[in-house]
Amino acid sequence: MMGQAMVESMQGKSPADRYSVMTSVKHFAAYGAVEGGKEYNTVDMSRSACSTTICRRIKPGLMPAAAR
């Protein structure tokens, strides 16, 4: 899955690697989830919105990478 590949490529093989980058789904998960179709607008990132729509779509792809 694309999300998993992105996280794994940024994290590298080890956190001690020189070019390893810590990743976070904070912005990745909700990017493009703005209200009204505008790039910079309000976003509903409540626990309920995240668990029922936004994060549910990306969770399967990111969990294997996060478990490393």
- Measured distance between first and last alpha carbons: 16 Å
Gross morphology is elongated
Percent of residues in beta strands: under 5%
Proportion of helical residues: 40-55%
Tell me the number of helical segments per DSSP (H or I, 4 or more residues long).
3
Count of discrete structural domains: 1
Pfam family, one: Glyco_hydro_3
Organism: Klebsiella pneumoniae
Protein name: Beta-D-glucoside glucohydrolase
EC number: 3.2.1.21
Detailed description of the structure:
Its EC number is 3.2.1.21. One of its GO terms (biological process) is carbohydrate metabolic process. This is Beta-D-glucoside glucohydrolase. It comes from Klebsiella pneumoniae. The protein has 68 residues and is mainly α. The protein has one domain. Helices cover 53% and strands 0% of the residues. The chain contains three helices and no strands. α1 crosses α3. The longest helix has 20 residues. The protein starts with a helix and ends with a helix.
Short synopsis of the structure:
53% of the residues lie in helices and 0% in strands. The protein is an all-alpha fold and 68 residues long.
